[in-house]
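hey so i finally got around to running the thing on that chain from the lab meeting. sorry it took forever, my laptop kept dying and i had to restart like 3 times. anyway pasting the input first so we r on the same page abt which one it is
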Amino acid sequence: MPSVPPPSVPGQPAGETGSPLPNPGTYEECHRKCKEVFPIQMEGVRLVVNKGLSNHFQVSHTVTLSTLAESGYRFGATYVGTQQTGPAESFPVMVGDMDNTGSLNAQVIHQLTSTVRSKIAIQTQQHKFVNWQCDMEYRGDDFTSAVTLGNPDVLLGSGIIVAHYLQSISPALALGGELVYHRRPGEEGAVTSLMGRYTGNNYVATLTLGGAGAHATYYHRANDQLQLGVEFEGSMRTQETAVLFGYQLDLPKANLLFKGSVDSNWVVGAVLEKKLLPLPLSLALGAFLNQKKNKFQYLLQLPPTHWAMLGPAQTHTVLGLSCMYLLDSETLLYCELWGRE
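ok and heres what got predicted. didnt touch it at all, straight out
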């Protein structure tokens, strides 16, 4: 039976342990293992061209058309430094993109030492600063602590501070907590939550309890091909709860991946992905059905020569078309289309 490996400490050589307990990873990643099992819906038209200029620098051009979000053009750039801390980790990392209106999203991630990592992120809307935050993370032998400072304003006395702490109690059990403090003129408050995660040989169970509500996930790897996930969310503000069940079936010999899900609102979804080797193309078929609202969405991803619509036209039909093409050894062209009729 395959096992779920524990998180590793950046910069720590393989086989070398400075503590009998492993590092638990970060607080934000505790529910991620389960969420990766669920299929994701998409909407809109997107054309992406990635161009690698060197081993450390690449640029991208993105054109987006959507009925739900803003349409436009974005130019992006990514730089990865030469400080290698692991087989697939190098620092510093600088990522940014700007749209046709001048709005900017950028972040810089750097591994200061073998245990300290920092991140700075900024977001502007045309010529105005909208959001910016600074993160500092420390990874010890058996614990991880992090502090995030968001949108601080000394003149107005406003800002947000988020503190995370995660401690390994045993090789399988990790406990932690989160404190969110916000302040602005005429209002301030704090929200705390506690988190526990238990990692077995082939499963991960995580529970978060706080003033905002409860969040629980359970991830189970049945074998090398099948993964299962269950998520529960309850909100104290809206007095609502939701349960989501999903599974992922991976058939590497057939280059096939299938994801399915159903939630307590009777929304059923499924996505089938097929790699068309040796061509640099992929095929995906998916469908999402909302029983309560009587809405049905389905999608199709095919090369452009196979543009088609499955089934009769419906009021809430979503269609999709996407393809990837390797122009040369450094340029990747990617296009996807999701339409609503």
